[in-house]
Design a protein that fits this description.
Layout (H helix, E strand, L loop, with lengths): L2 H25 L7 E4 L2 E8 L14 E5 L2 E2 L2 E6 L5 E2 L1 H12 L20 H8 L2 E8 L8 H14 L5 E7 L3 E8 L2 H9 L9 H12 L5 E8 L10 H10 L2 E8 H4 L2 H14 L3 E4 L2 H17 L1 E5 L9 E8 L8 E3 L3 E3 L2 E5 L4 E4 L3
Parallel strand pairs: 1-18, 7-8, 7-10, 10-11, 11-12
Antiparallel strand pairs: 2-13, 2-15, 3-4, 3-14, 5-6, 5-13, 8-9, 14-16, 17-18
Helix pairs in contact: 4-5, 4-10, 6-7, 7-9
C-alpha cells in the first residue's frame, strides 16, 4: 500500500473521529433516566347479585379500584350503553396538573403522575360502542352442526347494538379474516355465510392473532369464540393468549360445544382464560344452547360498567394486578367480574431522555 493511500486512510479516520466527537459533545451525555407515560386503563366490569342477576344503577362511588395495592382514581364512568362521562374529580386534577411547574427532573424508573383527564379522542373511542371480534371454529371438528352454528352467529351479529363494530374471523389450522372490523352488518353476515369447513384446529394460534388485531383499537374490545373441539395444532400456549388479552384489555367469551367438552383440559383452560380477562365460558349441548349462549353474551355486553383510570405512580414494570371491589355494605354479597391485571405493553422508545410509552388500555 502506497504512502498516499495510507495518508488518505489516516486523515479519513481522523476526520470521522472528530465528527463523532463533535456530535457527542453537542448532544451532551446520554441521559439514562426513563420517563414513562401510561395510557388510560379501561375496565369492563360486570356486577351480579347472589342469584346471578345484573345489578344496575350503580355510581362511581360504589367502586374501589386498586392496582398493585395502590388505590386508583376513576377518570371516566358509564353503565351499559350510556354515554361515557368524565368525572368532576378528574377535571379538578387536570386543572391542578396544568398549574404545576414543568421541567422537573425525575429519578431512574420514576413514573409521572399522569393527568387524570381524558382527551376528546379517547373519550369518543370509549363512547363509540364495543369492538366485537367473532372467531368461528371451522376445523374438521365442525362437520356436524355447521349450519346451526352459522345461524346462531348470524342472529348474534344482528342483535348487537348499532354503535358496535364487528369483525368475523374463522379458523382451522390458519386464521381467515372473512370480515374486518366494520359497522356494516351485511359485510359481516356475508363473511359468516361464505365460511367453509377446514383442517385441524389451531385455536390458540389463531386466537392470539385475533387478540393482536383487537389490541389495535381503543375502547371496549371483545372476542367471542365459538369452539367445537379441542386444540390439536397450536404451538402457542393458552397462557400467552390470556396474558396478552389481559394486558390489552380484551375480554374473551367462549362458547364450547359438547365435542369440545370431551377433553377436560380444554374445558378447564376455557374457564380460566375467560375468567382472567373478564369474560365468560359457556358449554352448549345443542344448537338451542348455542343461541342462548350468544344471547347471554349480548345481554352481558349491555350491562357492563365501563371504568377507566390513569395509574398512579408505580415503579413496577412487570405484571400489575387489578382488583375492583364494591364499597357499599348493601352490595357485599354481589359478585364483581373484570380482568385481573395487565403487563405494560411498550409501544415507543426514544434514546437520549429515554421515553417509554406504554399502552395497557
Amino acid at each position: 500500500m502506497g504512502n498516499k493511500t495510507v495518508g488518505l486512510l489516516f486523515w479519513s479516520c481522523l476526520g470521522f473521529c472528530l465528527c463523532m466527537g463533535h456530535a457527542v459533545t453537542a448532544q451532551g451525555p446520554v441521559n439514562s433516566r426513563i420517563h414513562v407515560v401510561v395510557d388510560l386503563v379501561q375496565l369492563n366490569v360486570a356486577v351480579t347479585d347472589s342469584r346471578g342477576n345484573y345489578v344496575t344503577g350503580l355510581q362511581p362511588g360504589d367502586f374501589a379500584v386498586v392496582e398493585d395495592g395502590i388505590p386508583q382514581k376513576v377518570a371516566t364512568f358509564a353503565e351499559g350503553n350510556e354515554p361515557t362521562r368524565r368525572l368532576a374529580e378528574a377535571r379538578s386534577n387536570e386543572r391542578a396538573a396544568n398549574d404545576a411547574p414543568r421541567g422537573g427532573q425525575q429519578t431512574d424508573h420514576e413514573q409521572d403522575n399522569p393527568p387524570a383527564s381524558v382527551s376528546a379522542a379517547e373519550l369518543s373511542s370509549v363512547v363509540a360502542g364495543a369492538n366485537v371480534f367473532v372467531l368461528f371454529d371451522t376445523s374438521n371438528y365442525m362437520y356436524r352442526g355447521f349450519v346451526f352454528a352459522q345461524d346462531a352467529i348470524s342472529e348474534f351479529i344482528r342483535s348487537l347494538e348499532a354503535a358496535d363494530r364487528i369483525a368475523f374471523y374463522s379458523y382451522s389450522r390458519d386464521l381467515s379474516r372473512a370480515a374486518r372490523l366494520t359497522a356494516d352488518r351485511s359485510l359481516v353476515l356475508h363473511g359468516v355465510r361464505t365460511t367453509v369447513a377446514g383442517d385441524d384446529a389451531a385455536l390458540y394460534n389463531c386466537l392470539l392473532l385475533t387478540v393482536k388485531d383487537a389490541a389495535q383499537f381503543s375502547g371496549r374490545k371483545v372476542v367471542v369464540v365459538f369452539s367445537n373441539g379441542p386444540d390439536n395444532a397450536s404451538i402457542i400456549p393458552p397462557e400467552d393468549v390470556a396474558e396478552l388479552a389481559q394486558s390489552t384489555g380484551t375480554a374473551i367469551y367462549m362458547i364450547s360445544t359438547q365435542e369440545a367438552q370431551l377433553e377436560p383440559i380444554s374445558t378447564a383452560v376455557f374457564e380460566r382464560m375467560t375468567a382472567a380477562t373478564g369474560g365468560k365460558a359457556y358449554f352448549a349441548k345443542n344448537w338451542k344452547d348455542e343461541k342462548r349462549a350468544f344471547a347471554s353474551i349480548k345481554d352481558d355486553l349491555a350491562h357492563l360498567y365501563s371504568l377507566s383510570y390513569y395509574p398512579q405512580q408505580n415503579s413496577n414494570r412487570g405484571w400489575r394486578s387489578i382488583t375492583v371491589k364494591l364499597t357499599s355494605e348493601r352490595l357485599k354479597k354481589c359478585h364483581v367480574r373484570t380482568r385481573n391485571g395487565y403487563r405494560l405493553q411498550s409501544s415507543r422508545f426514544n434514546t437520549g431522555e429515554a421515553t417509554i410509552k406504554t399502552n395497557p388500555r
